[in-house]
Specification:
Layout: E1 7-9, E2 16-18, H1 29-41, H2 53-70
Antiparallel strand pairs: 1-2
């Protein structure tokens, strides 16, 4: 028995989109462009706390050096 094509909801307008669609995961080129515009304008952000102590220390050192340059 063949498995049915997978489907998701378009992230922009929430219409059902089949995985075989040419615009997948969007339902249309319009929704794809609207989503790209949101990324470009900064509406979408990927953020998570920095948990690596080495990275935090490096950032702290850079911040201190930057404030010393301003003085």
């Amino acid at each position: 028995m063949a498995t049915p094509p997978k489907a998701l909801f378009c992230p922009t307008c929430r219409k059902v989109v089949l995985a075989t669609s040419g615009d997948f995961p969007f339902c249309s080129d319009r929704c794809r462009i609207l989503d790209l515009g949101k990324w470009a304008s900064g509406d979408y952000k990927i953020s998570s706390p920095i948990l690596d102590p080495d990275v935090l220390e490096g950032l702290d050192q850079r911040m201190r050096r930057g404030s010393e340059d301003e003085d």
